[in-house]
């Protein structure tokens, strides 16, 4: 167990409940900031050095809290925003405890993990625990939409850091850490054709919808499960009336790739669809959003340290690669040793059955806290 006293799972759940019942949909910056205010007050009260970076583009602020010390810091980062709209608690997903499960919007992804980070840093400072390195904690407002405003602060904090810890949800029934993630990206594909009467002047038209259908099949064919590459097209749009050759159409494209080389190959193939011929013009906007978090020896060393702590506490901690991206993708691509998936066990991210296994709050938080104390 860490030198810092964590408390009981009952105590942690009671405070985490307050976080869950404060709804924080990503687009509502004011709502996210309300929870950010609570976290800031708790950290200021124990002497953290606070920097509050104002939000932009309608998103909330980014909170940076630092503990005293010399040398390269250990960075821990979590997001406070969720995919759930206002009213979800009242309408369909009230906070509730049913046996070993605690339910609520965002509890698994990732309010439990972000609370771990906050609670660990707060208690380290409150109790005066000595850590081998200073700690930098970031709480961010917009991870669920790709971290458009928080990526730069995350990368700034990680630059020169000893390590980065990401308490995103633990994976699978065994609660695995994440040592590798696919890179994620996307494009908006738009097509301009030529309108014409679908009966009397059919040959004068150039159907943007037909061109879109060919492009969709080409994107779908880029999926290669053996290489770990997947693509998806949704939503799609196009056309106005059945008797009009559609002059406009388009779609959104999502792609995932396990390495930078594979991501670049997929990006080149998608960009090659942008042509102008026979009255059809295809344009593409987008690219790679999160670079891959590729497994490295340094990242595996962090995992082995976490696994050893878990073993002393009394449970096995496996590792896994995951298809979804996180803010750890950014820091790993910078060459900073990064360990992800240090949040709570559970399931149902972005789904109505979202829950954590609340009895695991202490043993999971303890691993994160001891890493913060002992990484040298």
TrEMBL record:
The active site is at residues 81, 143. GO terms for molecular function: hydrolase activity; metal ion binding. Keywords: Hydrolase, Metal-binding. Residues 179-272 form the Peptidase M20 dimerisation domain. Signal peptide: none annotated. CDD domains: M20_CPDG2. InterPro entries: Bact_exopeptidase_dim_dom, Pept_M20_glutamate_carboxypep, Peptidase_M20, Peptidase_M20_dimer, Peptidase_M20A. This is M20 family peptidase. It comes from Dankookia rubra.
């Amino acid at each position: 167990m860490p030198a810092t006293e964590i408390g009981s799972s009952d105590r942690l759940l009671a405070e985490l409940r307050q976080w869950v019942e404060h709804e924080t949909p990503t687009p509502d910056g004011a709502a996210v900031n309300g929870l950010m205010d609570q976290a800031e007050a708790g950290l200021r009260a124990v002497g953290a050095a606070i920097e509050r970076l104002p939000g932009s583009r309608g998103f909330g602020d980014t909170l940076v809290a630092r503990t005293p010390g010399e040398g390269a810091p250990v960075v821990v980062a979590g997001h406070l925003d969720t995919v759930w709209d206002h009213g979800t608690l009242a309408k369909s997903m009230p906070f509730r405890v049913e046996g070993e499960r605690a339910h609520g919007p965002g509890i698994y992804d990732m309010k439990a993990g972000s609370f771990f980070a906050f609670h660990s840093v707060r208690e380290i400072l409150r109790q005066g625990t000595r850590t081998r390195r200073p700690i930098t904690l970031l709480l961010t407002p917009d991870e669920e939409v790709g971290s458009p405003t928080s990526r730069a602060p995350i990368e700034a904090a990680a630059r020169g850091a000893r390590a980065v810890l990401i308490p995103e949800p633990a994976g699978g029934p065994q609660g695995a850490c994440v040592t590798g993630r696919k890179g994620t990206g996307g494009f908006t594909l738009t097509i301009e054709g030529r309108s014409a009467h679908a009966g009397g002047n059919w040959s004068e038209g150039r159907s943007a919808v037909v061109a879109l259908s060919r492009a969709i099949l080409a994107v779908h064919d880029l999926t290669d499960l053996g290489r770990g590459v997947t693509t998806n097209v949704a939503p799609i749009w196009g056309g106005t009336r059945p008797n009009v050759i559609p002059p406009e159409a388009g779609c959104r494209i999502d792609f995932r790739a396990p390495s930078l080389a594979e991501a670049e190959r997929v990006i080149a193939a998608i960009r090659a669809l942008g042509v102008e011929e026979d009255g059809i013009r295809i344009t593409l906007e987008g690219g790679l959003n999160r670079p891959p978090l590729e497994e490295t020896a340094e990242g595996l060393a962090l995992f082995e340290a976490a696994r050893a702590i878990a073993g002393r506490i009394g449970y096995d901690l496996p590792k896994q690669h995951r298809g979804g991206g996180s803010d750890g993708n950014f820091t790993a691509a910078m060459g900073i040793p990064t360990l992800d998936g240090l949040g709570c066990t559970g399931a149902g991210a972005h789904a109505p059955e979202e829950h954590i296994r609340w009895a695991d709050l202490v043993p999971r938080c303890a691993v994160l806290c001891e890493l913060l104390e002992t990484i040298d």
